[in-house]
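Standup notes
- DV: blocked on the single-chain target, sequence here:
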Amino acid sequence: MTDYFAFYGLPLSFNPDAALVKQKFYEFSKKYHPDFYINESDEKQAEVLELSTVNNKAYQVLSDPQKRLHYILELKGLLKEGENYVLPQSFLMDMMDINEALMDLQFDPDPVRLAGLKEDVNGVEKGLSEEIISLTTSFDAQDADEQNKTLIAVKDLYYRNKYLLRLRESIANASAL
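- DV (later): unblocked, structure below
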């Protein structure tokens, strides 16, 4: 996996300097523009095209907080393809209540109850977002041990958020009925 932070010469951070990320993107966009290498060998053209692609991906990831969070967890080896992450029991119990209410609404539609569920999910999501912001803001100033603990906590919140996204889709589907 390409380290986009290293590619741009930046320290790993959940909150990199947005202006610096953009500056590096434009700098490398000019430096690795395929048109400037039209008279070079096929190998050199392929290399420049690859660097141009890496530059575009790096910018997309580092300039988007959600993609960046996922990327950092992946880069640090905390997200694995097909991982069966176990969410905390208390969280699952709260979500089970919402899921049951959603199932009830399939058989007995009630716009007021549905709006209440949306508010419940919004409240949980807001709380998770605030926790993530709090953790990721303090990350840069932490030592390696603290950073590892923060990454594990962020991973848990990441998976809770993923669960909420699926729940939000179910609510949207119920709204469409």
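- Follow-up: The chain has two domains: 4-75, 89-176.
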